[in-house]
Amino acid sequence: GGGPGSGLARSAGSDRRPGARGGLAPFWAAGEPRLVAIAGGSGRQQSHWIKLVSPATGKVVKTLSVPGVVNAYALSPDGARVFVSEYNGGQAVISGISVSTGKATFIADGYAPAISPDGRYLAYSPAGRLTSIAIRDLRTGSTRSVDLSKAVGASFMLIGLRALLWLGDGTALVVAPSPAVQAGGNGTFNGPRCASQLTPRGLCLVVVDIEPHKLSARRVYIPRRWSAYWTSNCADLSSRHSIYIFRTGPIRPRAAVRITFTEHGVVGRRATTMPQQALPLSMAPGGDRLLYLAGRPPHRDLWIGTVRDGRLVGKHVLVPDGGKFAFYSANW
């Protein structure tokens, strides 16, 4: 199928991603990512940076200065570049910053950059067309786009961190909404539009299927038993057809839920519980570790824990908040 609410998976016999060579393209293998990217700035918003940190030791390997306010960013799979969307002079600009030299190369005006698992394609929301998705081939410079206004509503804006999630096999993007202000204690939100709030059918996401000659969009609903009190999300690059959503708020226990799209619908499974004070940020590409913030505002430390048997174990501070700078977010 391909209509609203249908599953995401297609036949495993071929990869429809542009440039793929027969069979399913390799997805991000589980293992030890070399770097974690942390975005932050001074309390007075005078200085902004992205720090690259070892997930094993917490040691800062590199600090990249960013002229504007960081909107969203993505670290390439090989750790060679960071793709940053920043506000600079009132304009949102996406640049690719070399980790080795710190040199920034302009890519496009836009928001929410997301790099494909093989590092070849960059998806983003073009400036001035915030209900559209563009996909840039970083080798050739060619760009394709698809308008999502029929699925998400004309006033929806795709601007946040992890608004776009690549599936592990590179055949589709999941367009994730930004959480709305909660209406009450039952985990529902006001508003009927897909990809902006929870609906009576559950959390509505938009899937962009990537085929050689076209991009197409459709709705997929995550049942409320898995999506109530949803607050954020991240990709699951250890799998071909999964993402993670984080359930926080008054629900106990807080949890990371793995959502898998199949030919027969959507399947949810709790991957791990989390400390009740945790603000989850991102799951490791192998699905084995979680980055989260914890502590008393305004000072929150960056923590890391290992996922084991549905629980988060070995929890420890990866990068402490020294008070001089504030963390915005962290990403693998």
What order do the helices and strands come in, and which of them pair?
Blueprint: E1 36-42, E2 48-53, E3 60-65, E4 69-75, E5 81-88, E6 91-98, E7 104-115, E8 121-126, E9 132-137, E10 143-147, H1 149-152, E11 164-166, E12 172-175, E13 198-199, E14 202-211, E15 214-222, H2 224-227, E16 230-235, E17 242-247, E18 254-262, E19 265-274, E20 279-283, E21 289-294, E22 301-308, E23 311-319, E24 325-331
Antiparallel strand pairs: 1-2, 1-24, 2-3, 4-5, 5-6, 6-7, 7-8, 8-9, 9-10, 11-12, 12-14, 13-14, 14-15, 16-17, 17-18, 18-19, 20-21, 21-22, 22-23
Question: Would you write up a description of this structure?
Answer:
The chain has about 325 residues and is an all-beta fold. The chain has two helices and 24 strands. The strands form five sheets. A seven-stranded antiparallel beta sheet has the order 4-5-6-7-8-9-10, with no helix packed on it. Strands 11, 12, 13, 14 and 15 form a five-stranded antiparallel beta sheet that branches. It has a four-stranded antiparallel beta sheet with strand order 3-2-1-24, with no helix packed on it. The chain is globular and about 50 Å long.
